[in-house]
Amino acid sequence: MMPVLPLRDVVVYPHMVIPLFVGREKSIRALERAMEHDKKIFLVAQKDAGQDEPNPDDIYRIGTISTILQLLKLPDGTVKVLVEGGERARVEAFVDDEEFFGAELTVLESTQDEDEGRELEVLTRSVLTQFEQYVKLNKKVPPEILASLTGIDDPGRLADTIAAHLSVKIEQKQAILEIESKRERLEHIIAQLEEEMDLLQVEKRIRGRVKRQMEKSQREYYLNEQMKAIQKELGDMDDAPNEIEDLARKIEEAGMPKEAREKATAELNKLKMMSPMSAEATVVRNYVDWLVSVPWKKRTKIRNNLVEAEKVLEADHYGLEKVKERIVEYLAVQQRVKKLKGPILCLVGPPGVGKTSVGQSIARATNRKFSRMSLGGVRDEAEIRGHRRTYIGALPGKIIQNLAKAGVRNPLFLLDEVDKMSMDFRGDPSSALLEVLDPEQNHTFNDHYLEVDYDLSNVMFVATANTLNIPGPLLDRMEVIRLSGYTEDEKINIAMRYLVPKQMKNHGLEEGELAISEATIRDIVRYYTREAGVRNVEREIAKICRKVVKQQVSRRAKGKVRITPRSLQKYLGVKRFRFGRKEEMDRIGQVTGLAWTEVGGDLLTIEAAVMPGKGRPSYTGQLGDIMQESIQAAMTVVRSRVDALGIDAKFYQKTDVHIHVPEGATPKDGPSAGVGMCTALVSALTKIPVRSNVAMTGEITLRGEVLPIGGLKEKLLAALRGGIDTVLIPYENQRELSEIPANILQNLEVKPVKWIDEVFEVALQHKPKLTSDRENAAEVVDGETSGGEDEGRKPLRPH
User: Fold this and answer.
1) C-alpha–C-alpha distance, residues 694 and 676, integer Å
2) Which residues contact 789 (CB under 8 A, 6 or more apart)?
3) Distance between CA 526 and CA 717 in Å, rounded?
4) Is 6 helix (H, G, I), strand (E, B) or coil?
5) Mind listing the pLDDT tens digit for each residue in 498-528?
6) Best CA proximity match to 459, nearest among 375, 301, 343
7) CA angle at residue 197 from 196 to 202, to 5 degrees?
8) Per the residue annotation, which of 582, 715, 754, 767 is the catalytic one?
9) I want to staple 369 with a disulfide (CB 3.0 to 4.6 A). Which of 54, 411, 437, 676 is the partner?
10) Which residues of 612-647 are buried (b: 16+ CB within 10 A; e: fewer)?
11) Helix, strand, coil % over all residues of the chain, rounded to 5
């Protein structure tokens, strides 16, 4: 009895070496039994490859006695075995042992008559020739096999080797195995090769014919035409309009100018001549679609009722008087002049003061449709002007896209964050905006995609920016309206009028469920936010609303919840900011300056310290170049006034001076801290403390003159928030005080100064003490005697 290994989808011939992967338990045990004895195993094909547990009836009767050359157990439990076919054998009887299949076998010898030698030689040559042609037609058989066949002399072995490489079904391979006669086997293979080559040649002819005749676009066109014909027969498309006719009707109704109409008609005529499924037809169709979707004549009627417009603006925003006044002026002129080019406004101010939302209010007040385009991070000129049609997936620019979305030719167009644009190798979008925002040019705006002029003069453009970091030519085309930070009173008004009702509505709270007093809002503004706008105030109010809703839902609170300054900490946590950031006591070498930032004004502490040394200056606090130059100018001012200030004339040679501006992680720059630097130096050198309730701002010259600065309102607001009593400002900024709200000026003593000596008189606790020689010289010059060390003197001013 010999172990039997049933095979799926493979027939092993004599002299054939083949690797097999064995996974069935019985088959593995049959291999193990063979390895224990003479390594002989009977390989026979299954009739049905899907049978996992084949019976004797599922297995062919003729197979190959093979020798196991190599056996390897794999990690997943299967066995890889390399076998070599030996002799044909027939099963006389199966022995179905529980462990493995066994069989009693009879070896079959290949038969050959004595007079068949000449015939076999002819058949061998014929089969080799035919197999060579078969290999050329069938790319699946490697050509190297032909070289190995020339070394085989035995016709039976040659027939078996060729049969192993035929791409035929398992039943046909088994039939070849069962033929004992060499001559009959060769004849059968020749017939099989003839049949296979016929099939391959037909397949090749069909493939060539299909390749020549059936291009993809023709095939799709043919199928689509058939679909249309079928749908028409079924009655599905009887009511559907013709696409070309539909586009022609839209061109008629669009109200295009002559140039655009001629362009659209020419493109439509081109589209009629094209195959509907070609790529170029899709490009032309998209172009015509964009041309007809742009609003050429449709517009909204501008509201000229000034009273109504003022009501809308007042209802939406508190303050912002300059913006409201400018809009009402525009509407007033519009009543007189029917054709007026839309104004181009640029609202500049810190975040959270309502620049973007005021754009929506202007649209409502003037009865224009609102369209917003964010320019933050835009660095491609094609975002404004569009791509040329030569590019795949080309589209018009955002200007034309938003106009098509608005559906009218006179909307309000909000260009948000116009200062956040940048440029790279794809172009400069700010330069592309020059034409858009120029009233003298934008009536012939030319988008790269549309290639026809479009009139933008009816559009009202409103740009917003946090800073004036905008290219000069672009800034020159816009009317700049500055929105400064809100005062404390304005924030409280905004919160009580708009923010509290809005957040109560957003959180599903009724009027009778929550009450926030004005004093509570004042504490939120003072102790939980520090900003120019009201975004954080709104967040804190939303936080209170969420906690109240949670109490109501969990039934911990009954009736109306009243938020008072005393209970505020329970809802918002500990106070984040100390209202009144000024120092509690006067200090030597420490001055409170005023700074402008993108989020409003802020207090800037300036510290100066002197140590014995070699006159080496050091500046810390991440100071910019301009601020370092201000320190050098301040040092020169002090050195030029050593006599008047009672300072050793050679202090700069034997004293190291260190100037530091705290919050070192924040970059600082600008000339407006020059006055503060100079005062801190004088205080450190004379050991006279600086009054902590005094803040100052101003640029200083080498002669000691105080030059004007910007951002006055924001700086005064910061001083008021910080608990400062007296603010020193440049004399030339005095004219701006008329625009400062009265409640700020009531709580601050603002002193305009022209020379640095006036600053010393107010900021220092007392005048510097002079040496006796200096005092005597001063008395002779002035023609009067000193009544005491603190008696007032006229400040020293260079002529």
Assistant:
1) 11
2) 769
3) 12
4) strand
5) 899 989 999 888 888 888 889 999 889 888 8
6) 343
7) 100
8) 715
9) 411
10) eeeeeeebebebeeebeebbebbbbbbeebbebbbb
11) 45, 20, 35
| CA distances, 411 to each of 314, 339, 375, 434 (Å) | 21, 15, 18, 19
HEC assignment per residue over 237-253? CCCCCCHHHHHHHHHHH
Residue 502 known to be catalytic: no
Q: Give the number of other Cβ atoms within 10 Å of residue 430's Cβ.
A: 22
Tokens 């569009």, residue located: 386
Helix (H, G, I), strand (E, B) or coil at 379: coil
Question: Sheet holding 412-416: strands in order across?
Answer: 370-374, 412-416, 460-465, 344-348, 479-482
C-alpha 333: how far from its chain's center?
43
State the burial class of residue 7 (Cβ atoms within 10 Å of its Cβ: 0-12, 13-18, 19+): buried
Sheet hosting strand 590-597, strand order edge to edge: 617-620, 655-660, 600-612, 590-597, 694-696, 726-730, 749-753
Secondary element (H or E) of residue 453: strand 453-454
∠ CA(167), CA(170), CA(175), 5° rounding? 105
pLDDT in tens, 309-334: 888 888 877 777 878 888 788 778 87
In the chain, count of helices (H) and strands (E)? Answer: 30, 26
Cβ-contact 607, 662 below 8 angstroms: yes
Q: Which residue has the higher pLDDT, 557 or 38?
A: 38
Cβ contacts of residue 110 below 8 Å, gap of 6+?
88, 156, 180, 181, 182, 185
How far apart are alpha carbons 367 and 235 in whole angstroms?
47
Q: What is the pLDDT of residue 451?
A: 83
Determine if the pTM surpasses 0.70: no
Catalytic residue among 27, 110, 672, 692: 672
Q: Which residues contact 9 (CB under 8 A, 6 or more apart)?
A: 49, 170
Q: Which of 4-13, 220-229, 438-447 has the highest mean pLDDT?
A: 4-13
Q: CA 163, CA 160: separation in Å to the nearest integer?
A: 5
Number of residues that this document lists for the chain:
799
Q: How far is CA 218 from the centre of its chain?
A: 41
Tokens 């490859």, located at residue: 49
Q: Which residue has the tokens 């006669």?
A: 181
Q: The tokens of 589 are what?
A: 């070498």
Matching residue, tokens 């020689």: 773
181 has which bridge partners?
A: 111
- Residue 672 is among the residues annotated as catalytic for this protein: yes
CA dist list (Å): 696 to 262, 752, 762: 67, 10, 10
Check: CB of residue 251 under 8 Å from CB of residue 268. yes
Structure tokens, 435: 């034409």
